[in-house]
Amino acid sequence: MYPLDVVKTRVQLQTGTGGPDHYNGMLDCFRKIVRNEGFSRLYRGITAPILMEAPKRATKFAANDKWGKFYRDAFGQVKMTQGLSVLTGASAGATEAFVVVPFELVKIRLQDKTSGGKYNGMIDVVVKTVRNEGILAMYNGLESTLWRHILWNAGYFGCIFQVREWIPKADNKKGQMVNDIIAGSVGGTIGTVVNTPMDVVKSRIQNTIKVPGQVAKYNWAFPAVATVAREEGFAALYKGFLPKVLRLGPGGGILLVVYTGVMDFFRNMRDAQEAAKL
Hints:
Blueprint lengths: L1 H12 L12 H12 L9 H28 L7 H30 L10 H12 L8 H25 L6 H34 L14 H12 L8 H37 L1
Helix pairs in contact: 1-9, 3-4, 4-6, 6-7, 7-8, 7-9
């Protein structure tokens, strides 16, 4: 799925119109990257998300479970409701955001079209960012990342709850897997629709080199949204939407299926160990 993320970022970062290097859509971006920079460019910066994925996903679902219990106790609910699912997902997203910001910043800067002459890899991005902008620069874009993850996870977990309520209950593992694919894919798609504007401004904020004494054009999330809408039109807030939804729509389904399967595996292992003790 990673090349789709590279294309998404490239489209989100471009602000001009026209010209031989302008991307006119997802396929045009793929074609120009491969033709002008080589196929391997579609995988530039992949080390950061590879290192990020495990702690990111673990934090997402662990936080969702913990926040779910917290809110059920706080509101005196025995079972989850639609509203609690949205609130729990939003809280899990905020928790997850603190884990991913440095990795996202490195990834964005390596994916940028101009990064070839700036950085030699992930470690070089970290060293140059800290040396030139300070250690706190690794958390540039924290606020916009918080909003991006709050909105996506609220939509994702809220939709999973609702879709599971709507579709017939499964009576076997295969049926449960199908249900999880459907629920997770719908959740991933809705989450993407809701959070793409924040993703656009997050990409621009994190790709901005901080210069002492200068106020960055893209700094805080909502002012940046207003700037993009005013200068480029509302549609610009959905730049990169197609490659993003193609990745996170089905990706949301795969994520839920894998999580459910792994949790079932560990529960069965635990039950077997407890049975052996008896």
